[in-house]
Design goal:
The protein is mainly beta and 171 residues long. The protein has no helices and 19 strands. A 7-stranded parallel β-sheet has the order 2-5-8-11-14-16-18, with no helix packed on it. A 7-stranded parallel β-sheet has the order 3-6-9-12-15-17-19, with no helix packed on it. Strands 1-4-7-10-13 form a 5-stranded parallel β-sheet, with no helix packed on it. 0% of the residues lie in helices and 53% in strands.
Length: 171
């Protein structure tokens, strides 16, 4: 759990395992500073609810993942606005590892960008907050499902598949 206030910056690096069997793996709260979270190739973050939750005021949110982020009943990455604030910072997700679950980037306020050169396994609807998605890696929908399902990418202004793979098999 990380809590920043004022105009400070929160920087959190994960090189091992962060897991919560009862709630959220990482919660970062920042009223007006930047929030930077990085998961190294040796790192993993999981939660029974969200894996990573960022509550932001006006700072930029940057999440760089080279490891594995796995959401539970909530989101793999959930960026929300602090109560009684109008967030203005942008949200940047750079994935070179594996993200399993959904993302909610609607609370960042500014433009969001999800850049995927790893694997994003979408298990349910994601909200991109009016931002963009650039894929040079693998986007999987319904991976491991035993019955057909539907997953939506909501509030997505641009989806650019720049040589990546989009896998719609539920295998």
């Amino acid at each position: 759990y990380a809590n920043g206030s004022g105009s400070g910056t929160i920087t959190l690096g994960v090189s091992g395992k962060v897991a919560s069997s009862g709630s959220t793996g990482i919660v970062a709260i920042n009223t007006s500073g930047a929030t930077n979270i990085s998961v190294a190739s040796t790192g993993s973050v999981s939660g029974a609810a969200d894996a990573i939750q960022v509550q932001t005021g006006s700072g930029q949110v940057t999440i760089a993942n080279a490891g594995t982020i796995t959401g539970g009943s909530g989101y793999a990455i959930n960026v929300t606005a602090l109560a009684q604030s109008t967030p203005t910072g942008s949200t940047q997700i750079n994935n070179t590892g594996t993200i399993v679950g959904a993302v909610n980037l609607a609370g960042g306020g500014g433009a969001s960008t999800f850049t995927n050169s790893g694997t994003f396994t979408a298990t349910k609807d994601s909200d991109f907050g009016g931002g963009s998605f650039v894929n040079t890696g693998v986007v999987q929908v319904g991976a491991g499902a035993t019955t057909p399902g539907a997953v939506s990418f909501l509030n997505l202004t641009t989806f650019e598949n720049a040589g990546g793979l989009i896998d719609l098999r539920n295998a």
